[in-house]
Amino acid sequence: FFDLAWTTEGLDVQRQWLDENRLHGSYGNDVIARIQNLIRKYIPAKDKSFLVIGSTRPWIEVILLAEGAKHITTLEYNPYPCDHPNITSISPTDFSDLVRSKVAPQFDAMVSFSSLEHSGLGGKYVFMLERIESLLKSLDEPTFENIRYEISSPS
Asked: Can you tell me the distance from the alpha carbon of 75 to that of 80, in angstroms, rounded to the nearest whole number?
């Protein structure tokens, strides 16, 4: 099924699993319920644009789609081809190019779960975030307004 996970068909199946409480993602139903509750409480997704950092399985994307997200951009070192009209998968290098060219999409919120810490301090994700932060600071207008964050991990 993993080959189909990022297709519209695969995302629809995972949405059905979410509705039936059978979507396990990478961390199980408890984590999925926790993320759903955090999104509902702090960043209601309806009609909002999201940046998802790190996602080999699109379980966060499925949650966001189910909550009514307008668009999701997934930032992944090895972006997966995705034919869903509300999801774009992009590499950090391509995303940096968009930011540098001042044509990067604007996001209402960012979601990441157990991705940033995998390489440890000084790892590739920390480096990527430092690059993104540096690029965002160089823009004339803020890209993120009213920034709110929740740091969470599987343990």
From this structure: 10
Look at residue 26 in the predicted model and tell me its pLDDT. Answer: 80
Find where tokens 């920390």 sit.
Answer: 126
Q: Determine the residue type at 133.
A: E
Amino acid identity, position 80: Y
List all residues 6 or more positions away from 92 whose beta carbon is below 8 Å from its beta carbon: 75, 77, 128, 131, 132
**Whole-model pTM over 0.70:** yes
101: which DSSP letter?
T
Q: Residue 145's closest CA among 49, 52, 39?
A: 49
Residue 73's Cβ-count burial label (10 Å; 0-12, 13-18, 19+) is buried
Query: pLDDT band at 148, cuts 50/70/90?
Result: very low
Largest CA distance in the chain: 45
Burial 77-99 (b: 16+ CB within 10 A, else e): eebbebebebbebbebeebbeeb
Q: Mean per-residue pLDDT for 106-120? A: 73
The pLDDT score that the predictor gives to residue 154 is 47
